[in-house]
Amino acid sequence: MQTIYSGKTKDVLREGEDFYLLFKDAATGENGVFDPGFNTVGGSVAGKGRTGLAIAAYFFGRMEAAGIPTHCLGADMEACLMKVRPVEVPKLEFVLRYFTAGSMCRRFSIEPGLPFDPPYLEVTLKEDAQGDPLISERLCLMKGLLRPGEYEQALDLLVRAGEVLREELSALGLKLIDFKLEFGFDENRNICVADEITPDIWRAQTGAGDIPDQIECARLLLARITEKGA
């Protein structure tokens, strides 16, 4: 397979006309501390890629069942590969917050855990060197990242995806705090959820009030998803 792009936690591969995501064992964080909100790799955990793929395949399936289009076409667990439809993914991340947390608290000196109703939506430019700055619809259009109407279209899909994700995590014993998604566009500019849906893209709270890092959250989820499917 040809490597098209190598990211922090996933690689994009191509074989003929088929495209795949390779889920790696790397985890975001800093100095050995794992945190999905960081833009750097904090270390590697054996088996993380396979666990992440299993969780991603589960949640993409739930999205599809709810009528939310995704780029997922199937998963090869042994090879840690997800087959995906080819889409154009703008360098943007769409963030939905149900509660204050993470970078928002640092940026605006707000205490964590304050609720948002309706949820708070943000869009950031996916550019590590610039610290993933917030970006407006107008700037997305000026930079050619999106076409007219697609900013709101993506936000609408973000809210719908959040409702599914929050309900699924609640059924698995977790309260969703915030999450981020990437969206892709096919050759006809149809939009779909792209990249991944794993603990690498959200914060969630246990019934005891703890916010596990993405490694611990994945371990908890995989066990519960396995039990649910048994």
What keyword list fits this structure?
five-stranded antiparallel β-sheet, single chain, alpha+beta, Phosphorylase Kinase, domain 1, 2 domains, 5 helices, D-amino Acid Aminotransferase, Chain A, domain 1, globular, 230 residues
Structural account:
There is one protein chain. The protein has 230 residues and is an alpha+beta fold. The chain has two domains: 2-84, 2-Layer Sandwich (Phosphorylase Kinase, domain 1); 92-213, D-amino Acid Aminotransferase, Chain A, domain 1, CATH 3.30.470. It is built from five helices and 13 strands. Strands 1-2-3-8-7 form a five-stranded antiparallel beta sheet. Strands 9, 10, 11, 12 and 13 form a five-stranded antiparallel beta sheet that branches. Helix 1 crosses helix 5 (214-229). It is globular. The model has no long low-confidence stretch (mean pLDDT 92).
Task: Please sum up the structure shown.
The protein has five helices and 13 strands. The protein has 230 residues and is of the alpha+beta class.
What layout of secondary structure does this protein have?
Layout: E1 2-6, E2 10-15, E3 18-23, E4 26-30, E5 33-34, E6 41-44, H1 48-65, E7 72-76, E8 81-84, E9 92-99, H2 102-108, E10 115-125, H3 137-142, H4 150-171, E11 175-185, E12 191-194, E13 202-205, H5 214-229
Helix pairs in contact: 1-5
Give helix % range.
Answer: 25-40%
Strand order of the largest sheet: 1-2-3-8-7
- Compute the average pLDDT: 92
Count of domains? 2
User: How would you describe the shape?
Assistant: globular
Strand content: 25-35%
Q: Note the run of SSEs as H and E.
A: EEEEEEHEEEHEHHEEEH
CATH superfamily of the largest domain: ATP-grasp fold, B domain
Name of the CATH class of the largest domain: Alpha Beta
Rg (C-alpha, Å):
17 Å
Low-confidence stretches: none
